[in-house]
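Section 3.1: Structural characterization of target chains.
Under the original work plan, the team committed to producing a structural model for every single-chain target entering the pipeline before any wet-lab resources were allocated. The record below documents one such target. The sequence was received from the expression subgroup and is listed exactly as submitted; it comprises 557 residues.
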Amino acid sequence: MTTSPPRTGRPPRARRRRPGSAAAAMAAVLTSFALLAACSGPPKGTGGNVADVRLSASTPEARGEIDSFTWALYAEPPTLDYTVAFDYPQNTILSNVCESLMRWTPGLTTEPGLARQATNSDPTTWVYDLRPGVRFHDGREMTADDVVFSLGRQTDPDNAAAWAQVFQNVASVTKTGPLQVTVKLGKPDSQFPQYMATSAGVVASKAGVEAAGQDYGTSGGLACTGPFKLGTWNKGQSVELERFDGYWGTRAKSKKAVFRFLTDPSARTNAMLSGEIDGGYLIPTESYARLRGSGTGTLYFGEGLSTVNVSITDMKGPLGDVRVRRALSLALDRSGFVKAGLGGAGTVTNSLTTRAAWAAAPERTLKTAFDGLPPTGQDIEKAKALVKEAGATGKTLTVATSSIGQDVSLLATAVQAAGTRIGLDIRLKTIAPNAFTALFTDPQAREGIDMFPLTYYDSITDPLDLLQNFKTGAYMNFAGYSDPAYDRLVDEATAAYEPGPRMDIEARLQRHAAEQLLWIPVAEWPTALFLNKRITGAPTTISYMYHPWAAAVGAAQ
């Protein structure tokens, strides 16, 4: 499910609609949170820092329809099969083509999607009543059989589904009416209903998927229900989406959306400045100031539920000693990285989770979760002493880097500089942008790599989305960390439907993960969006990963 190496958010689970107080808290975060970045002059070779970054909830509403718009992606998706849609490129496209039972809103709350309602009569039963009259892109009408089939693909071992972990507590998915599906859980799971608003809850046509066979997701249609349908896929160049005029919801304002694959950050920026590209998310950080001052459009920032981290991928070597991990954390220049690597648009952090993810938590829980976490400031002498105490002086460690963006390459360089100062031999291994996704899915791709920069986005507004990654055997537990006490707390939090008690447990998980430095937290990072003067309507928040955002893009005037 990146600064970004694998820019990714992990497969999570779905949730019940948040209570009003939580929604209000999230609204406050979106409207008033300001990041004031110090600006000491532009780093050499960059466009400089942005001095004042204010988060906005949305962009102005479109005034009319357009024939098409063109969007930039930093990499080509290997497939658009929803069962493996865990990364930015796939979901940025797929969210407009395939829809889920529930829907994540631009305000990062959950509302009905293809299911008009979700109810749970007891802690282990979820009933989804489907919307009538919803049609797939091939004209077939959606039924309960399609839902049972679609969710079943997520647990089919032949699919190697990235979202399989979401279904770990699902005992059965059955049709209980022509437009009703009942999910029975083996035990209560507060995360599962939340994840039904992500790619885990996508519904596709049973007949359409079966007809495509092994080619599903790589050619032909996707047999989904969204406001756009898959058009031409020019491999290595672009994907075109065509408006689906049989859509059950509000018709898209653009007849076509074209996604261009531009792996070079400079090429993406230049294409936006020239008007060749109308917009994009995941703007190269080194281009923030240049785009903001260009006069060709507007650079927006929104809540990203994202933290930039150093992912630990191998604990068999020196990093298996927590003293070495702590030493690297103490030696890392987080402030310098935020200025240079994030263009000033971020804040240093000692937390793996963002504060916005705790919108439903009471103040006492926030204190438990955030007070007393390891320091963010540098202490080189203490770090040197820890390395020496661990017997790791002179030991070699390898960190992956990539030209995917300055946020990735400069963090890798910062880790190398930190290690060098405290007696470690840190070496860089360059990975091509299109190959970064493999670091998440292929253990062989991680061989010989001890760490890599990882920007993690939450797929639901719940801290457990990230914290569950360190449970024994979890999909993104790359280093194989295992602690029975931690596992028990994850299970307790998963079983708690009420946000207050659940977040009390999650606060304990947060402190444990921070003390053990299972990943090294570096910064909170907002979502960046650029729109030229021609278009508007796209949301600024991370909701675009699972919300049909492109349908709202239209004429600015």
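The longest helix spans residues 499-516.
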